[in-house]
Here is the input.
Amino acid sequence: MTTTVDSVALFLKQRGYRPRTSESYLFWVRRMESHFPDRDISSLSPEDVASFFQHLQARRLSGQSVRQATSAIRFMFREILRRKDLADVVPNIKLTRPKASIPTQQEVLAIIAKVDNKQFQAALKCIYGMGLELQDVRSLKVKHIDLQEHKIRVQPQRSKVVRLVPIPRFVLDDLKSIAKANTPDQYIFPSKTGAPLAEQSLQRAWRAAQRAANVAGAYNIRSLRHAYIRHLELLGVPLKDVLHHLGVHKARALEYYSSYGAPSTDLTFSPADRVLHEGEGQSSLDSAPYVSEQRLTQLSEAHSPNFDFTRLLALLYELNSASRNRK
Here is the structure.
């Protein structure tokens, strides 16, 4: 006799769900079955479903665990048992994204300098220097490197939108050496078997280097991407332009990243205590940049065998930032 668990397992396999997702869904279906040992899940009432999730919340499970349970149970009722009335009873759990922990540039460079393995060090340089995801770095191949234009072709795992990313100078020599020593179809950062570099290996190298550099803070490899975004913003690059460059276009992401770098301050005065000079010229947010965005774009796209405009661009972004903040 085919059970509900068997039906869910078969459906997940046919649809090509990832192993971890399948394991999680089957775990929660079995958990619900054990909660009602003498009853068939298909015969449950909306009150029964609500009581099951009240039971989970009473056990003080993490928000992430409860969210996994809601996804699995809703999937079972909707796709397998065809009980929309029960699927609608499953609560919607919204998780609050934690604030990112962002290292300073000094901390980032100090940690990377302490990585003994040169391959791991170059991979971490790419993540920080180009704002890449860990999975993006693992999937890079030698053929994606363009040494003439000093750019690298990146296809993010999430958005699938291919983009060309300028290669920072502090990792350029590493990538040149890798490109010369390997064939085009080889991964830039392979494991010993030729497969993509293992995530755990790079994460262990990062943690060891952070300890060696004596850098405190709840930082991880994803912190490097957060640092890339934050540090460009501090240099005067508009946040929306940074996110656009990374292929991030959702308003929710803009809201999230715009808040994580803002320090919280106590409110110590009322607007009634200050004299406002409204209508007397533009605010700093509306004023034109000291160096035009068009000129900055032209410089970023310019290529010369005799000149490197990277430092000049950084200085001009700082100048715009200072001008905008009236420094």
Q: What stands out?
A: Confidence is low (pLDDT under 50) at residues 280-286.
